[in-house]
Every structure is written in structure tokens, then in C-alpha cells.
Amino acid sequence: MAIQILPPQLANQIAAGEVVERPASVVKELVENCLDAGATKIDIEVEKGGSKALIVRDNGKGIAKSELELALARHATSKVASLADLESILSFGFRGEALASISSVSRLTLSSRQQDASEAWQAYAEGRDMAVKVQPTAHPVGTTVEVVDLFFNTPARRRFLRADKTEFTHIEEQLKRIALAKEEIHFSLRHNDKLVRQYRPARNDRQRQQRLASICGSAFADRAFMLRSSNDDLALTGFLALDDDKARVSEVQYFYVNGRVVRDKLVNHAVRQALEEAGVAQAAGFVLYLTVDPHEVDVNVHPAKHEVRFHQARYVHDFILTALQQGLSQRTSLLNDEPAL
Ligand code: ADP
Ligand code: MG
């Protein structure tokens, strides 16, 4: 075969292979877009584990009619315009790939209305075979993305979907991770018309405890103590809880870097070392939030953005270690300032 440029739909489907693994990855991308749009309320509806339909509604700033079609195009983003932007990224999105990818493997409807717009508009794309259609619709300020028949035109992918229940469990897990990062946002999740999760905004420590309990379980929330540590460059806050005879809470392990959940060996190592040095025999669960100058961390390592690279890995590791050691030695439970033990 001679060298040829791939047709756009095929290029998008290949890109979708990286970003859109299963319904839960669609939920992740769509919800992150809501957050980037400044939404405070995000409602998710799922039908049949997401393989039939996935609907995500937000009350964010919306998309202008003139940009609806562009929003579905590949490499179209309102979040990065230069390499400098990319090096100091704070938004979740920056690749401009999610909507293009998802719309290339589903029937996607994007409905939106901006604050000052007199009308709402809707764009529809079906596997991106046909041109995007834009028409008026009824919609409050904000955006709704409806993804129907995911992978209908990529049978190999569709075959990889698991039972509805399994796919839905992945969606719930995805939502947990995001809800833990954004305590001020109201989330709801429905499956087959039934309300399954509802996370209310937390504005004080009591509400924080309730939200932590509804997301991570009350066993974790009841045992959790708070950490708060910072220096000129870094800050670490969050919760740590230890396993005991009555409950195993060490399965709860979430680590965030600038609001983005990551898996990082460095973090697990610091946690293990802190426990060891403190002479704690049990394993620990944690929900930790690291804040770092975005210039000091590279998030553009993997399309799904689960990995990060710290420019000063050793320094970050040692900071986390010290913060955990302090936390362990001063253990204060969430609801009162008295030592938990
Ligand atoms: P990225 O998030 O990387 O920019 P996406 O394909 O996810 O790429 O989205 C493309 C663009 O569409 C975004 O940059 C944004 O301008 C717009 N957009 C997508 N979802 C929403 C939403 N829920 N509210 C407002 N704008 C949105
Ligand atoms: Mg996005």
C-alpha cells in the first residue's frame, strides 16, 4: 500500500482506542469536561451499563452555537493554545480528543446553552460518518452530552464489554474518584432510571465526613484522620485510616496531584515507609491531595492521564513521607481534635 493520510473517522477511531476503553472512560471524559466548564452540578444517567446510553448533564458555562461543531472535531480545544499553556496545565482536558473520539464510536448528541444565549442548540454526530447536524433545541444553561450505542460501529470493541453490572461498577468507581477530588460539586448517578449515588457538596468538616462516608464507606470515614502539611512549594492534605480487627480500610487508596487522580509508585513507597518508621503494623487506606506548581509536574505522559512525572521526584517523595509521619504522630480524627487513639 502507498502511504496515505488516514480518513478523519478512522483516525478518530484509532485515537478512541486509547481514550475510550469502556463506558466508564466515556463518563470520565465527559464529567471532566463539565468540571472544566465550571459546573457545580453534574448528573449522570446510565442505561444498561452504559452500552445502551450514557447521559451527562451539567450547569456549566455552555458552548456557543458557532463552536458546537468544532467541539466535536479532533484536536479542537478551548483549553490550550500554546506550549506554555501545556506546561502549566490546570484543566482536566487539553488534548481536544475526547468528544471527537467518543463521537466516532457512538451516536452522540451535544446540547448546550450559554448564559446570555436566547436559544439552546444541539449537534448530532453518528459515528462521524455523516456531517454534524446543528439544530435548535430546548436546554437550560449548561451542557448535556448523550452517548448512545457505544461501539456500535466497532464490533471488536463492543465484544469486549462485560456484563452491564460490571461496566456499571467501573462507572461508579470512576465517579468516586472524581467526587473525591471535587467536594464542592453535587453529583448524581442513575442506572436504568434508579438513583444509585448522590454526593452532596461538602462545605464544613461534618459535611466532609458525610461525603467521605458516602463515597468511601463509613468504615473508612469513621477511622480517618486528617492530614495537612505544606511548605513553600508543596501542600499535602487529606485522610489516612488504618486497618483494624473490625474493618479493612486499606483498599481505599486515592492519590491526587492538582486534583487529578494518579497511580504512583513514589506515593505508595512513601506511605509504606511512613508506616514502617512509625512502627504501625497495619496497612493504611488514604485519600490524599498533593498540590504542586504545575510547572513541576508533567501530566502529558499518557492519554488517560493516570501517570505523572515529577521533575523533582525525590523532593516530592520526602515531603510526602514527612507529612505522613507528622500526621501519624499527631493523629486527630475528623470530627474532633482529640487524638483518635
Ligand atoms: P478537551 O477537553 O481536551 O478540550 P474535548 O474533546 O473533551 O477536549 O472537548 C472539546 C471542547 O469542547 C472543549 O475544549 C470545550 O471547549 C468544549 N466542551 C466539551 N464539553 C463541554 C461542556 N460540558 N461544557 C462546556 N464546554 C464543553
Ligand atoms: Mg475533555
Features:
binds magnesium ion; Heat Shock Protein 90; globular; binds adenosine-5'-diphosphate; 15 strands; 2 domains; Ribosomal Protein S5, domain 2; alpha+beta; 341 residues; 34% helix; eight-stranded mixed beta sheet
Strand order of the largest sheet: 5-4-3-6-2-1-7-8
CATH superfamily name of the largest domain? Histidine kinase-like ATPase, C-terminal domain
- Radius of gyration from the alpha-carbon trace, in angstroms: 21 Å
Shape: globular
How many separate helices?
11
Fraction of residues in H or I helices: 25-40%
Low-confidence stretches: 336-341
Biggest sheet architecture: 8 strands, mixed
Which ligands accompany this protein?
Answer: adenosine-5'-diphosphate, magnesium ion
- The ordered string of helix (H) and strand (E) elements is HHEEHHHEEEEHHEEHHEEEEHEEEH
The structural domain count equals: 2
Average predicted confidence as pLDDT: 89
* Total beta strands: 15
User: CATH class of the largest domain, please?
Assistant: Alpha Beta
Shape-level CATH architecture of the largest domain:
2-Layer Sandwich
How much strand? 25-35%
User: What is the SS-derived class?
Assistant: alpha+beta
Distance between the termini: 71 Å
CATH topology of the largest domain: Heat Shock Protein 90
Organism: Ferrimonas lipolytica
GO biological process, one term: mismatch repair
GO molecular function, one term: endonuclease activity
Family: Belongs to the DNA mismatch repair MutL/HexB family.
Outline of the structure:
This protein is of the alpha+beta class.
Could you walk me through the main structural features you see in this protein, from its secondary elements to its overall organization?
The protein is of the alpha+beta class. It has two domains: 8-199, Heat Shock Protein 90 (2-Layer Sandwich); 218-330, 2-Layer Sandwich (Ribosomal Protein S5, domain 2). The protein is built from eleven helices and 15 strands. The strands form three sheets. The chain has an eight-stranded mixed sheet with strand order 5-4-3-6-2-1-7-8. Strand 3 and strand 4 form a beta hairpin. Helix 1 (8-19) packs across helix 5 (98-104). It is globular. The protein starts with 7 loop residues before the first helix and ends in an 11-residue tail after the last helix. 38% of the residues are buried. Bound molecules: adenosine-5'-diphosphate and magnesium ion. Adenosine-5'-diphosphate binds at residues 29, 33-34, 36-37, 58, 60-63, 71, 76-79, 93-100, 143.
